[in-house]
Amino acid sequence: MSEFAKRPIEPMQISLDIASGSLTPSGPTLTRRLSDLDGCFLNPKEFQSDVTSGNPIVYDVISSLVPETARELPQSITTIYPGSCGGEFYMTKGHQHLDLQGEIYYGLEGTGGIILFDGKISKWLEITPGKIGYIPPGWAHRSINTGAIKYKFLAVYPGSAGHDYGWVLKNGMGYRAFSENGKLVLKDFVI
Ligand code: S6P
Ligand code: ZN
């Protein structure tokens, strides 16, 4: 322990309730409405119209009490609501880690997946309950709900990874995920 300036958090047990998507004990919850995803969807007219007519919740993220600091391994539960905007499935903002470190996602409920982009190569990983998605260092990631019910997943990530949202705005996300007759169609992301 002597190498730590400050003692890390104590060992703890955390209860995960999949039905409610909650952690106990839990830290802060972040709720993102459609208006918080300005610039993410391709069609600005549809985006503005959906914001004006209700501005629905697109996803929320419940964090554990483990702090986002070096050497810790915080967790979070993301719940993406079912829906689409301008034909694109509801998605997270998407980010690159400021400190290029890996991350693990574990599917809990619903059907969805991860778009991954390293600046050149695009990948899609489908995530369903019981599936682990591995995000290697240097791959920006955006989650998509491709189903008709809520899509929930657990994320475990290095506490010092951080979130670089600007990277996605600058470099794009590789693919866009469209809903065509309710089915996923991936199209190249054009900047
Ligand atoms: C953190 C991890 C997740 C996302 C969450 C929301 O590294 O990847 O907890 O933060 O799924 O996505 P975003 O792109 O809005 O942060
Ligand atoms: Zn991440």
In short:
The chain has 191 residues and is mainly beta.
Distance between the termini: 48 Å
Outline the biggest β-sheet: 6 strands, antiparallel
Portion of residues in beta strands equals 35-45%
Query: CATH first level: which class?
Result: Mainly Beta
CATH topology: Jelly Rolls
Bound compounds, each kind once, are: D-sorbitol-6-phosphate, zinc ion
Number of strands: 15
Q: Which word captures the global form?
A: globular
Mean pLDDT across residues:
95
Rg from alpha-carbon coordinates:
17 Å
Structural class: mainly beta
Tell me the strand order in the biggest sheet. 3-4-5-13-8-11
Oligomer status: single chain
| Proportion of helical residues | under 10%
Number of helices: 2
Notes on the protein architecture:
- The relative contact order is 0.19.
- It is built from two helices and 15 strands.
- The chain has helices at 44-52, 165-171; strands at 15-17, 22-24, 29-33, 57-63, 75-80, 84-85, 88-89, 103-109, 112-117, 122-127, 132-135, 140-145, 151-156, 175-180, 183-188.
- With 191 residues, the chain is mostly beta strands.
- It has a single domain, classed as Jelly Rolls.
- The protein binds D-sorbitol-6-phosphate (S6P) and zinc ion (ZN).
- Residues 61, 76, 78, 92-95, 103, 143, 155, 157, 161, 163 line the site of D-sorbitol-6-phosphate.
